[in-house]
Design brief:
With 154 residues, the chain is an all-alpha fold. Helices cover 68% and strands 0% of the residues.
C-alpha cells in the first residue's frame, strides 16, 4: 500500500474503485504526464510555451501602451469587461491551445496507445495557457513601470 491508496476513489491495488468513470487512476495519470517530458515528441513542451509567450509579450506590450491593467488582474477585477478580455486572450492563445491538444492526442495514440482527454487538457493548459497568462501580465507590469502610471492602480 502506497500513498495512492489513501486517496478517495482508489483501491489499495491502485486501480479505480466505484468512482472509476470520474476519478482516473492518479498514479497512471502522473506517470503518463511525466513520460511526456522525457519521451518522444518532447520538443512540443518547449515549442508551445515559446509560441504562447510570443503572443503574450505582444499583447502585454499593447496592454501597457494602452494603460490597461495586467490581463489576469483585469479579468478578475473588471467583471463588466471580463467576457471581452477572455475572448481577446482566447483569440491570441486559442490556436496554440488547440494545437497542444491535437499534438497530445497524437502522442497518446502513438506512444500511450490510449485516449485520455483529461491528460490532454492538463498538458494543453500547462504548455499554452499558463505561459500566456504569466508572460502577458509580467510584460505589462514591466513596461507600465517604465512608462510611469498611465492607467488605474491595482
Amino acid at each position: 500500500m502506497g500513498p495512492w491508496s489513501q486517496l478517495p476513489g482508489l483501491s489499495p491495488a491502485g486501480g479505480a474503485s466505484r468512482l472509476s468513470p470520474v476519478v482516473p487512476d492518479l498514479r497512471q495519470f502522473f506517470e503518463e504526464l511525466g513520460g511526456r517530458v522525457t519521451g518522444p515528441m518532447k520538443f512540443r513542451l518547449l515549442l508551445q510555451p515559446v509560441m504562447a509567450a510570443f503572443f503574450a509579450i505582444r499583447a502585454g506590450a499593447r496592454d501597457a501602451r494602452e494603460g490597461r491593467r495586467p490581463f489576469l488582474a483585469a479579468i478578475l477585477a473588471e467583471p463588466e469587461r471580463r467576457r471581452e478580455r477572455v475572448a481577446e486572450g482566447w483569440r491570441h492563445v486559442g490556436r496554440i491551445f488547440l494545437l497542444a491538444m491535437a499534438m497530445d492526442l497524437v502522442y497518446q495514440v502513438l506512444i500511450v496507445k490510449a485516449f485520455r482527454p483529461l491528460e490532454s487538457v492538463v498538458v494543453s493548459v500547462v504548455v499554452a495557457l499558463v505561459p500566456y497568462l504569466i508572460f502577458r501580465g509580467v510584460v505589462n507590469r514591466i513596461l507600465s513601470r517604465r512608462r510611469g502610471p498611465a492607467g488605474p492602480a491595482i
